[in-house]
Design brief:
- One of its GO terms (molecular function) is lyase activity.
- It is built from ten helices and eleven strands.
- With 362 residues, it is an alpha+beta fold.
- It folds into two domains: 174 residues, Roll (Thiol Ester Dehydrase, Chain A), CATH 3.10.129; 141 residues, Thiol Ester Dehydrase, Chain A.
- α6 links the parallel β6 and β7.
- The protein is globular, with a radius of gyration of 23 Å.
- Bound molecules: ligand LIB3CWND.
Length: 362
């Protein structure tokens, strides 16, 4: 009879015994099933995350976000920051990253996010305090193995208590009953077209440059011509290990989708998938490289349409929706864009509306 208090009791060279041992063992679970969440619940997320210059630069370098205001102090000061802040995409990904253990580690799909508001910039060294409130829960009618949960999340500076960023996000979360599967059919990634044919403007105009006036003039021209202002960005970025597994792990995002190939082998994607915030940041970087951004303001109606896996390449498409010359300081105006990230097969993987302050010509 084996003495199980003996430190040498587990014979790792005997595969069959070890298999039987694993079969018999309960698993200490991580994350929560759908049933755990009830409307109005408040959650305080405990993981410690200190925003760092290295983390921000690593995020920006890998996602092609090269705006000098987030790299260099002279430009940062010219743009009204006290010193070089961390990049807003990194801040947002970190705030969401540390909520994953409590909210979405059990798996399921990050469907979308809205009301993303940047309240103030954050410096490297800021320690985060993040809380979430359950806003809505419902079962999924199309995927009985899942429920759909929406949380309102707020990321604050732990020292001053000031709110840095807030948003609402929605995920599919596996239900304990019926047993979790990876859901129904594969996503097509393409929205249904009820009329059976595309309804497109005759002309798509691109702005002459990346300043506020260029976007405003292009919108004026489009109105005169019954056209739309919409264009593609040339850059693409192929998803490698660093992007798919490295960046989410650096934000303490524990979702198995991004780093556990063994678990993901049986899922519809068949492999690990990119963190939505990485995919989005790459497409936004493509767009920002074609505009003179001054500040990020807000995002709305962000949707993740289809998986992004290793080897996929992310491109960007932008439509200009609105220009507001009265918003922000004199030297800027607000532009509202719709950005779409798409892959090498032209399948949309992300879309969202973004309002940014864009510099004017001097
Ligand atoms: C997830 C998908 C496979 C779903 O595909 P499909 O079934 O075609 O989509 P539907 O549009 O029918 O939506 C299904 C149900 O979900 C509801 N929904 C969808 N979007 C939203 C939203 N923004 N807000 C609220 N509810 C939403 C619909 O109403 C449907 O409800 P019901 O009819 O009752 O079932 C497909 O969309 C897909 O593959 N998406 C990509 C997902 C993805 O890759 N996300 C990013 C990577 S995962 C990640 O980042 C995880 C992250 O770390 C984390 O922890 O959250």
């Amino acid at each position: 009879m084996t003495d199980w208090s003996d430190p040498d009791a587990i014979d790792c060279s005997d595969g069959a015994t070890f298999d039987a041992l694993l079969d018999r063992a309960d698993t200490r679970e991580k994350g929560h099933y759908f049933e755990f969440f009830a409307e109005g619940d408040e959650l305080t997320h405990d993981p410690g995350l200190r925003l760092s210059q290295h983390g921000s630069e690593q995020w920006m370098g890998q996602t092609l976000n090269h705006d000098p205001a987030y790299w260099r102090s002279d430009t940062a000061r010219e743009r009204g920051f006290e010193d070089v802040p961390v990049h807003p995409d990194y801040l947002l990904a970190c705030v969401m990253g540390i909520t994953v253990e409590d909210l979405s580690e059990k798996g399921g799909y990050f469907l979308g996010r809205t009301d993303v508001e940047f309240h103030r910039s954050a410096r490297p060294g800021t320690e985060l305090a993040v809380t979430s409130r359950v806003v809505d829960t419902r079962t999924s009618s199309s995927r009985p193995a899942y429920g759909i949960v929406t949380w309102a999340t707020e990321g604050r500076d732990r020292e001053t208590g000031e709110t840095l960023v807030s948003y609402q996000r929605t995920n599919m979360i596996p239900r304990r009953e019926p047993a979790a599967t990876d859901g129904g059919g594969e996503a097509t990634g393409r929205p249904d077209d009820p009329d059976g044919g595309p309804d497109l403007p005759e002309t798509l105009l691109a702005p002459e440059g990346g300043r506020f006036e260029d976007f405003r003039d292009a919108l004026d021209d489009a109105e005169a011509e019954s056209a739309a202002v919409a264009y593609r960005h040339e850059r693409g970025r192929t998803m490698d290990d660093q992007l798919v597994a490295g960046l989410p792990l650096a934000t303490l995002n524990t979702a198995r989708q991004h780093h556990n190939r063994d678990e993901m082998a049986d899922s519809p994607s068949g492999d690990i998938v990119a963190y939505g915030d990485v995919t989005r940041s790459i497409a936004l970087a493509h767009a920002r490289s074609d505009e003179a951004t001054y500040r990020e303001r807000r995002f709305a109606d962000e949707r993740f349409h289809s998986f992004v896996t290793l080897g996929d390449t992310i491109y960007g498409f932008t439509r200009v929706l609105d220009c507001d010359g009265d918003a922000g300081p004199e030297a800027v105006g607000a532009v509202t864009f719709e950005h779409v990230a798409f892959n090498q097969d032209n399948t949309p993987v992300y879309s969202g509306r973004r309002t940014a302050l864009v510099q004017r010509y001097q």
